[in-house]
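can u do me a favor
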C-alpha cells in the first residue's frame, strides 16, 4: 500500500493552506465550510489578520443574505486556525494546498519544508496556475503525492477546480484529490499532462487577447466588448471586467510564465496590458483598471 492510499483510508480531515492571500483564504473557507479542520499559514501576521477579517465579513454577508445560518457560519469559522509556523501546521495535515507567491524558488522552499514536516501519507498540492507541480515535486521525497489543485477567483464561488497530474503523480493521489474536490462541492476537471495555462486560463487568454486586439483596433469600446461577451455568449463577466477582477498584474504574470515555458512571443503579455501594469492600474485591487472602482 502506497502512502497516498494510506491517506485515502484515513480520510482527509486536516487541511493546511499555505498563503493567506485572496486565493488561499477563500480556499481555506471552502474546506472549512465542508467540515474540514483547516490551518492557514502565512509568513506575515498581517496577512493572517486581513484574511480572518475578510472571511468573517464574507460569512456575515452570507448569513445576512440567508445563504447560511449564523451557527453554521460560526462553526465553519471556528474550524479555521491561523499561524505563521509552517512546520507545526504541516505536522498535523492530511492534505496541503500551497497558494503562496508565484515564484518557483519560494514554492520549492515551501515544498521542501512541507516534505520534511508533513506526515508521510499527506498529499501536497499547489494552487499555482502557472507552475506545473513537477517543478515542486522534485524537491520532495514523495513526488507521487504531489499535483496541482487549481481553484478560480473568487474561490468561494467558482465551481471549477483543475486537478493537474505530472508524470509521477500516482493514480491513487489523483483519485483521492478528485474525490476530495467533489466532497467540498466543487467540480474537478482532470488535466492529464502539464501544459502552460492548463485548460481554463488558455481559453481565457484567447478571449482576452482578442478583446484587446478589437479594442486596440478601435472596433468597439471596452464596455461594448464586455456587453457582447455577457449578452451574446452568456459569460458572467466580460473579458475586461474579468481582467480587472483577476488583476492586471496577475494577467501579465501568467502570460510571462507561459512565455517562459513556450518561448512563443504570442504568449507574452499583450502590450496594452503591459502599459497598464507599468502605470500601476491593476484592476479592482488598485481601484483602477479598465474600469474605476470605489475603494
Ligand atoms: N469573493 C467571494 N464571493 C464573491 C466575490 C468575491 N470576490 N464576489 C462576489 N461574490 C459572491 C457574492 O457574495 C454572491 O454570493 P451569493 O450568491 O451567495 O449571494 C455571488 O458571488 C454573486 O455575486 P454578485 O451577485 O455580487 O455578483 P455577480 O452575480 O456579478 O457575480 C462573480 C460575481 C461570481 C465574480 C461573477 O461575475 C463571475 O462568475 N465572474 C467570472 C469570474 C471568473 O471567470 N473567474 C475566473 C477567473 S480566472 C482565474 O481565477 C484563474 C487564474 O489562475 C487567475
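np, heres the sequence
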Amino acid at each position: 500500500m502506497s502512502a497516498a492510499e494510506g491517506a485515502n483510508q484515513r480520510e482527509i480531515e486536516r487541511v493546511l493552506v499555505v498563503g493567506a492571500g485572496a486565493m488561499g483564504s477563500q480556499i481555506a473557507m471552502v474546506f472549512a465550510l465542508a467540515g474540514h479542520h483547516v490551518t492557514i499559514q502565512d509568513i506575515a501576521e498581517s496577512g493572517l489578520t486581513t484574511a480572518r477579517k475578510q472571511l468573517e465579513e464574507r460569512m456575515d454577508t452570507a448569513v445576512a443574505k440567508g445563504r447560511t445560518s449564523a451557527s453554521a457560519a460560526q462553526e465553519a469559522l471556528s474550524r479555521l486556525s491561523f499561524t505563521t509556523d509552517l512546520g507545526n501546521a504541516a505536522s498535523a495535515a492530511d492534505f496541503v494546498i500551497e497558494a503562496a507567491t508565484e515564484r518557483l524558488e519560494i514554492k520549492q522552499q515551501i515544498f521542501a519544508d512541507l516534505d520534511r514536516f508533513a506526515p508521510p501519507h499527506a498529499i501536497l498540492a499547489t494552487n499555482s496556475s502557472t507552475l506545473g507541480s513537477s517543478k515542486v515535486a522534485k524537491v520532495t521525497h514523495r513526488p507521487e503525492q504531489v499535483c496541482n489543485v487549481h481553484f478560480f477567483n473568487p474561490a468561494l464561488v467558482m465551481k471549477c477546480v483543475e486537478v493537474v497530474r505530472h508524470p509521477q503523480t500516482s493514480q491513487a493521489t489523483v483519485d483521492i484529490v478528485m474525490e476530495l474536490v467533489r466532497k467540498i462541492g466543487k467540480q474537478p476537471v482532470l488535466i492529464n499532462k502539464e501544459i502552460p495555462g492548463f485548460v481554463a486560463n488558455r481559453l481565457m487568454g484567447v478571449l482576452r487577447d482578442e478583446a484587446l486586439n478589437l479594442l486596440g483596433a478601435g472596433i468597439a469600446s471596452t464596455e461594448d466588448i464586455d456587453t457582447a461577451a455577457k449578452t451574446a455568449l452568456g459569460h458572467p463577466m466580460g473579458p475586461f471586467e474579468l481582467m480587472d477582477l483577476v488583476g492586471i498584474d496577475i494577467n501579465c504574470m501568467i502570460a510571462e510564465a507561459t512565455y517562459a515555458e513556450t518561448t512563443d512571443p504570442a504568449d507574452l503579455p499583450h502590450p496594452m496590458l503591459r502599459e497598464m501594469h507599468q502605470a500601476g492600474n491593476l484592476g479592482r485591487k488598485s481601484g483602477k483598471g479598465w474600469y474605476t472602482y470605489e475603494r
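The chain is about 50% helix and 15% strand. hope that helps!!
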